[in-house]
Amino acid sequence: MSRCPLVLDTIYLNRQVRAMYERVARAPASGFHFHTGAGYAVRQLGYDAAELAALPDASTERFSGVGNPLRVGTIPAGAVVLDHACGAGMDLLLAAKAAGPDGRVIGVDLTPGMRASALRAAAQSGLLDRVRVHEGTFEDLPAEDASVDVVISNGVLNLAPDKPRVIGEIVRVLRPGGKLFLADVVLDRELAQAARANADLWASCIGGALTEAALLQLLEECGLSGAHVTERFECFAGTDVDRKFHNHLHAYGANVLAARP
Fold first, then answer.
1. Which CA distances in Å does 228 have to 77, 109, 154, 237?
2. Whole-number Å distance between alpha carbons of 218 and 215
3. For residue 98, how many other CB atoms are within 10 A of its CB?
4. Using CA atoms, how far apart are residues 69 and 85, in angstroms rounded to an integer?
5. Shortest CA distance to 89 belongs to which of 36, 142, 131?
6. Is the separation of the CB atoms in 2 and 157 below 8 Å?
7. Which of 20, 132, 253, 261 has CB atoms 3.0–4.6 Å from 67's, for a disulfide?
8. What is the mean pLDDT of residues 25-46?
């Protein structure tokens, strides 16, 4: 299911997603259907504890990814990197450090609270000279054609009602040979149409998630090549998603590498 069902209330979905991530920005420890924070990132997603300890709390406390896109591949020194729905900027800042002083990192997010946290963290890290954070959506990225070496994305493609449009934007901004380091929610089986039409289930990161096979096929159909899973994570272990669905549906995080030919 690469596009949402016609009966899905996308306006309601968009409002729910915005409200949820504004709440993460305001009160990251208040409890969600997903994990947040640096401790979770280290324990369940393989982030380096020392690297996260060197980042401001403004970014790490609000982290809510489902995988670790920075383990998908290496960000070259001097690279232009776009963080696709960057949130509070934890992956953004790690990418900026990897790209080095000659690199440039672009964060895009629709949530004002998250953008403010990312900019505050970049300033506290002394990285504002190589980090820019823009208001925007993943359907309309504020970047020129073929201007980006690496796109990183962590846990947001599943929320997109029109996934081909979102992936098409990634392809547009990548240079030939540029890489997508994707982490997203995947499912062990296809959902029924009734579940696909449930906006609350989409906002819970389940209704819009694909199976691994469907996700890889979609990436290839949208113009990326060599798409394959590099790593898997039990990102929902111990969450409400796990408790609600574990008897009949396995939702987990997967790292995926793909490239623009």
1. 24, 26, 16, 23
2. 5
3. 18
4. 13
5. 131
6. no
7. 253
8. 92
Verdict on whether the full-model pTM lies above 0.90 = yes
For residue range 168-223, what is the model confidence (pLDDT) as tens digits?
999 999 999 999 999 999 999 998 888 787 777 777 788 899 999 999 999 999 99
Tokens for 30, please give them. 């208040």
Closest CA to 106 of 121, 126, 89: 89
Per DSSP, what are the bridge partners of residue 134? Answer: 108
- Mean pLDDT for the chain overall: 92
Amino acid, res. 128: L
Q: Helices (DSSP H) in the chain: which residue ranges?
A: 10-26, 38-45, 49-53, 57-60, 90-99, 112-124, 163-173, 193-196, 199-203, 212-221, 240-245
Domains recognised in the chain with CATH numbers: 10-259 (3.40.50.150)
Neighbour tally for 161: CB within 10 Å? 18
For 33, 81, 100, 106, the CA distances from 143, given in Å and listed in that order, are 32, 11, 20, 9
Q: Among all chains, which residue has been given the structure tokens 């729910």? A: 16
Nearest-Å Rg of the Cα atoms of the chain is 17
Of 9-18, 31-40, 150-159, the poorest mean pLDDT is in 9-18
SS3 content of the chain, % helix, strand, coil (to 5): 40, 25, 40
